[in-house]
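Assemble and predict.
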Amino acid sequence: MAARLRAPGWYRGAWTFALGIGFAYGLTILLRSLLGADPVLDGNAVLTVALIAAPLFFLVGFGGFDYWFYWAAGKPTRPEDHSGHGAQSWKDYFRINTDHKVIGIQYTVTSFFFLLVGGMLAMLIRAELAAPGSQFVDADTYNGLFSVHASILIFLFIIPVFAGLANFVLPLMIGAPDMAFPRLNALSYWLLPIAGLMMIASFFAPGGSFSSGWTAYAPLSTDLPIGQTFFTVAVQFAGASSVLTALNFLVTIITMRAPGMSFWRMPLLVWANFSTSLLVVIATPFIAASQFFVLLDRSLGFNFFQTGLAAGNNGDVLMYQHVFWFYSHPAVYIMMLPGFGIISEILAVKARKPIFGYRMMAFSLLAIVVLGFTVWAHHMFVSGMQSWIRIPMMITTAIIAVPTGIKVFSWLATLWRGVLHLDTPMLFALGFLTMFTLGGISGVMLAIIPITIHVSDTYFIVAHIHYVLFGGSLFTIFAGVYYWFPKMTGRMYDETLGKLHFWLTFVGFNMTFGPMHIIGLQGMPRRVSDYAEKFAGWNLFISISSFVVGLSTLVFVYNMISSWRGGARAGANPWRALTLEWQVSSPPPVFNFDAVPTVVGGPYEYGIPGAVHGIFKTPAEAKPAGTVATRPTSE
Amino acid sequence: MLVLGVIASAVGIALALTINWFPTQASTQAADIDHLFNVLLVVSIPVFVGVEVVVLFCVWKFRMRPGEELKDGVPIHGNTRVEVVWTAVPAMLLVGLCTYAYVVLHRIEKPLPNSMVVNVTGEQFAWTFEYPAQGAGGKAVTSDVLYLPKDRPVQFRVRSADVIHDFWVPDFRMKIDAVPGLTTKYRVTPTRLGRYAVVCAELCGLGHAAMRQNAYVVTPVAFKTWMAKQAGAAGPAPAGGGAKTPAGGDLAARGRQVFTQSASPTCGACHTLADAGTTATTGPNLGQVLKGKNAAFIRQSILQPNAQIAKGYGPNIMPPNFGSTLSKQDIDALVAYLEKVAAK
């Protein structure tokens, strides 16, 4: 037992967690007595410090920092025996593990758990909105429901599930044995459940969960009860996780590509994650800053956002929104670009054709990265900021539709004269193509200032964001999960259930979010638990449709669990794909490749007889086959 | 396929333009914005329909048939001319739309002479409307109901007393945040008589969903009458003035007082009634429409204004909530008074 308490793992994590809480008590009592505050013991102060300290103490105990601590202290680090690598039993998924494939599955499964939580919250929201008036929850609980719903699905589902899929697939795709920094990879995963559990736990906080929306606009967020601090701190953990993973991806992509894989031979999923990681690394510190401002205002009485000239306060409320959206607009692309990558992979393989305009596809990703930083204030057209800034923001916002349009049109051209395999991943990819186009069109409408003046903060916005994040991102996620399910688990999923899942989701989704455009234009504001009588009919319809979407998720969950346990064995390459991850067994060996692959051609040379992307020979042996490349390649 | 796309787009546009997307147009801004939206629809629908037609056509034409399991598509890597077209055409289209949007924006926001200023203050969870220099001796008049004269430009100056709110009248289309520490503003020109909802559009806490008040667009004459009455009163008339009724006064006399003073808004703010000395014209002249009517009809017309509407007037103009803002005694008194007038 004593050895267990000393060794990294859950036992040591438990007592260091308790130590963290003790530290929070000690620190606040010490500081408050030094400052002469009365009472010396303040529950909110202790809780605020504990929210930050206890998870960090837990991570130390759990073993997230062991290697670096040994190294920094000059102690002999344990020689790398790869004991923390790979998974032999389910227990290996519940400890610090440095294998990118294990971490990828940890990420994906955790994110889907939070999808179910966020979806349940959505069902509660729709139950309350089924009729005007107040039925199940009071106004404060309702405000908490939609705030936690959005925060969990953005920070704990869409962003990390893409990181999870890429974690599994990306090193395989570029022919690398693992990520560049495996220990950092493990740490960045374990920051994630902490953030998610903290958001859920906010429902048990005195005064209820955080209820200022996922946007947490000050000064509302600085005035709310302690539940708001759960959001403020959880976002720091989720954000740190994102940044660390993104750094890891960047270094992995830049330095660990297999011989012969020039930038112009990288699959578009790799390009997409390269672009996304740039966005994450540059933008995420801004949301961290905005939440630190709120935290300091709340707990230490800084006056960032306190106005009121009588009290002598001269805070700046608009500053919060500028800093917040400087992250949160690029965040929309963080939640979309990896999906673009997934769709490019699936369409090429399932249409049996090269991606149309490969280079323009890569350039348009980079164009979105750059333009994505120039449009943030379009979220603030009615915020009362100086009015001239709206004009350049409108133009850049409209122009960002050009690279996005290039992608959509190129995907369509990829379908042209292909041989379309209409299985579940392909159906979700085509569903994405149609729904995302609609979300893009309402996006262009929202760039147009006079329209936004009327529809901002209405259900039109709710419809738009769900067409982009549900019809867009979530459809690409489903497509990707079905597509790589054989590779990740070594089993095939049930095709019939997969198609049933698609059609239920597709129809239910449109019936739920389509009518929201109408009630938004008609004047129904968002984030309200009660609404005018004239919206009652549509809202009942939307609520019933949303339960269809909820039901469809159960089909998906059942399919995943039963296929993982007892599905048919999958071969190494069931889709006859060219990219490298399909050239190894399903699931792949612990160190991915027995021989280092050499890349000799583009990733999507379908339809060209004898074309190969990578071969498992030495570079010298591989030379003659290099003639297969049909386009000039350069680095 | 092209023919199919054109036909589908035309049907889509026709369908979209017949749908009534927006609430009532009650300001000049509403007309401009709705028109802009229709233009956007006309441009967007061919794009959406085009994508759908290509996807469906490919699914139909190029789907894998039995026996084609190992067949590959045609290896087309790209086509520079096509790619230039689908980069340049959308770019020009979007720049064109932005230019048009700028023109509309300029028109709906351009300052106009003869604008009336109304100071709007949002606080958790109510709006207050202040009309500067309209009262006696240049004093400001404040009200919890927004009254606006028809066809006169009004400039709202919006402030907040606590957190961020958003001042929005959907039928006017315009909105702006009420930001603590700033004064924000916008302008509308109401063009249609009626009662409209004032909505808070920015999440402001517990009572956000209930932060709803009424805006009335009335004739300039009615506005003047209302303003004169407000300026005379010490403050806004409290609702349900049962406590102020003179003791021992008979029912009809008390009803007359409800008619002219206690109801919020007062009946006289909208209705002409010779007996009560009111001359407003937003609603029908009660001296004429009530002639010979019984108590039941009068009661219903107060409690459910839309049940029977006088000829020449639209629905939803009269507030439907007098049943809750007036006490039962006040309503009884009002009915008794009006019945007495109607019988004259």
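Chain B touches chain A through 79 residues (CB under 8 Å).
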